[in-house]
Design a protein that fits this description.
By secondary structure, this protein is an all-alpha fold. The protein has helices at 3-7, 9-26, 36-43, 47-54, 57-76, 88-104, 106-113, 118-135, 140-145, 152-169, 178-194, 209-217. Helix 2 crosses helix 7 (106-113) and helix 6 packs across helix 11. The longest helix is centred in the first third of the chain and has 20 residues, at 57-76. The chain is globular.
Length: 218
Amino acid sequence: MTDTALMDPRSVRSQDALVRATLHLLAERQADAISVTDVVHLAEVSRPTLYQHFGDLPTLIVAAVTARLQTLFAASLPNTPVTTAKDDASGSEAIHDLLQHLLDEADVFRHALHGSSGYPVIRQLADLLARRLQERGPLHEALERGATPKHLDRFIGHGAVGIVADWLDVPPADRESVDEVTARLTALLHFQLDHSCVTPTTPDAGICTEHIDTEEEA
């Protein structure tokens, strides 16, 4: 997609129509059961338009799901840095809200995870979460100081996404509630916070820079 295309209202409308059509179809069927013909017919655009803007159908599917995820992340997760245990309540609420939004559109994300688009979708979701952790999340302070291992944000992001993807893929009758998954993710995040160089969630937990420096000097 070029900058010129982004500035052209007609191009923007075509891209939006293709994204909306793709999300609509993903709510009905798995990604591998969707064809280019299905998408362009529903979007009321030509096949060359799809190829012009996205290159191919798998790329469009990933772009559509990523756009939806970005909207959900922006609506659910905190807009200010969360660095201490006192922010636990609001952080848990944000996780709960995001999970509820994902559950409300579970079919879209479940269907996107199957087939050739599956791994790229998971990678995009994990990257979004890692960036949010780096910029706004509870590990923000430690990551800024470099007091935690490199790529910890990506490690946590991919782990959390794996849990959520497995959760959404379970049949509704056997699926854990949003409250249960929120509690599980919060407990895992607390564990990481308690072993990182940030304000711990329990009084006797945490590893601080001073301790690390002392051990290195010894």
